[in-house]
Structure formats: structure tokens, C-alpha cells
Design brief:
245 residues; alpha/beta; Rossmann fold; globular; binds 2'-deoxycytidine-5'-monophosphate
Length: 245
């Protein structure tokens, strides 16, 4: 590993993506959203009308997905299926609901773990997911495990969905969050768990900026990394580009 790799793992809704993005910008690293890779493969399977209950069928269409990711230092991460940019198309409720079928398939995990390790070969990465510190980058320079109560995560997610005009109740979102926790934690390979050497951060009552600041401080103290000032609008521009706006 040539440069620093910082891993951020945790359940959905803990604030990982905003925080990982902020850390990457402050530390001058690229940002890898591994959930987006699972999402893109799920979209591919849905488009191919694959029987999602059949792991062999899912594994069978892996290679022709032609999945690619493009990382830039200050820009958004982009995800491609062949030459099609699907970055803005992978965040639908339908994709989210179907991911677990795809993420449970051993061949899918091995394929994506290999791809993620290749991306990490040059280092200089903040990578976010469920298994980054435990399985994909066990020798990462700094590992963070972040969490928040299911109620806080559901409240955040509910507000996000409402802002996007999605009509859904808080109770439904809470049920969804609990179900995803159950599926993510129970996954045999790459299941969500804290690496023994990860720093634990409870984000329940902290803003993303506060959490990012504590990770940046750790990176400066432990890894002697330099920080840079960022234009605040950069984060919003990145986020919007990744939502396909
Ligand atoms: O981070 P996200 O919500 O976009 O991730 C979507 C799903 O992808 C998540 O519920 C589980 C799966 N995932 C995974 O299994 N391993 C990862 N490293 C990242 C995501």
C-alpha cells in the first residue's frame, strides 16, 4: 500500500458518505463509495430481469455488467455500467430494496473486493462501506466504525426522503433501517462489524462536520497527514452530481 487508506464502516444512515467525502476533501484523498458498486450491480441484475432469488443467475451476469468507477480528487465518484453513467440511477428505493440479494452472493463479493483492492493499490483513499476495515483493507492506516441509534438514523433518512418528495412514514423508514441492519450484520462474508482496531464514533448527536473534524484530527495526529482548506460548496456540488442532478 503506497499511501494512506482510511476506512469508514457502519450501518446505513450513520452519516458515512457525507463524512467520508468531507474527510477526503480535507485530507486531499479520493473517496470510494463501495455501496454504489453493490447498487450498480443490483441495477444491472434488475435490468437483465435476473431471478434475484437465484445466486447462480446473479453471478452469471456479473462479467457483462462491465462495472467501472471513476474517482477524482475534488469531483464526485462516478459509476458506469459499460459506457453508461449510472451514478444518478442507483439510489432508487427499488434498488435499495433489492441490494441484499446481490450483496449476499459470494461471487459478487469476491469480484467487488478484488476491484476495491485494486483501486486501493496506490493508497490515498477514504473508502466507505460495511467490510472495508475488516475484510478489504485489514492493513488500512486508520479505521473508523461509526454508528447512531436506529431511531436517529431513521429520522435522518426520513427527512432526506421527504426533501426528495418521497411520501413515506417515519415508521416505515424505521422498519426499513432495522431490516437493513439485520441483513447487513448477518451476511456471512463481508457482514457489518467493527474491526478490532477501529476507532468507534457515535454520530447520534453530532453533525457530519463535527465527526469529520475528529477523524481529520486523528489522521493528522496518527498519520501526520496535512489538511487543506475546502470550499464548502464543493461538498454540496459533489453530492448533487452523485444524485444525478
Ligand atoms: O452504503 P449503501 O447504503 O449505499 O449500501 C447499500 C448496500 O450495499 C448495503 O445495505 C449493503 C451493501 N454493501 C455491502 O454489502 N458492502 C459494502 N462494502 C457496501 C455496501
Amino acid at each position: 500500500m503506497a499511501g494512506n487508506i482510511i476506512t469508514i464502516d457502519g450501518p446505513s444512515g450513520a452519516g458515512k458518505s457525507t463524512i467520508a467525502r468531507l474527510c477526503a476533501l480535507r485530507l486531499g484523498l479520493s473517496y470510494l463509495d463501495t455501496g454504489a458498486m453493490y447498487r450498480a450491480l443490483t441495477l444491472h441484475c434488475m435490468r437483465k430481469a435476473v431471478n434475484l432469488e437465484n445466486p447462480k443467475a446473479i453471478a452469471g451476469v456479473l462479467a457483462d455488467a462491465n462495472l467501472k468507477v471513476e474517482l477524482t480528487l475534488d469531483g464526485p465518484m462516478r459509476v458506469f455500467l459499460g459506457s453508461e453513467d449510472v451514478t444518478g440511477k442507483i439510489r432508487t428505493q427499488e434498488v435499495t430494496r433489492n441490494i441484499h440479494y446481490v450483496a449476499d452472493v459470494m461471487q459478487v463479493r469476491n469480484y467487488l473486493v478484488d476491484m476495491q483492492r485494486k483501486i486501493g493499490e496506490t493508497g490515498n483513499l477514504v473508502t466507505e462501506g460495511r467490510d472495508q476495515g475488516t475484510l478489504v483493507f485489514p492493513n488500512a492506516s486508520l479505521k473508523v466504525y461509526m454508528f447512531a441509534t436506529p431511531e436517529v438514523r431513521a429520522r435522518r433518512r426520513h427527512a432526506e426522503l421527504k426533501a426528495r418528495g418521497v411520501d413515506v412514514s417515519y415508521e416505515e423508514v424505521l422498519e426499513d433501517v432495522s431490516k437493513r441492519d439485520y441483513l447487513d450484520m448477518g451476511r456471512e462474508l463481508g457482514g457489518l462489524k467493527k474491526a478490532l482496531d477501529a476507532v468507534e464514533l457515535d454520530t447520534s448527536s453530532l453533525s457530519p462536520e463535527q465527526v469529520a473534524e475528529s477523524i481529520v484530527k486523528l489522521a493528522k495526529a496518527r498519520l501526520k497527514m496535512q489538511t487543506r482548506k475546502i470550499d464548502k460548496s464543493l461538498l454540496e456540488r459533489q453530492r448533487q452530481a452523485e444524485q444525478g442532478k
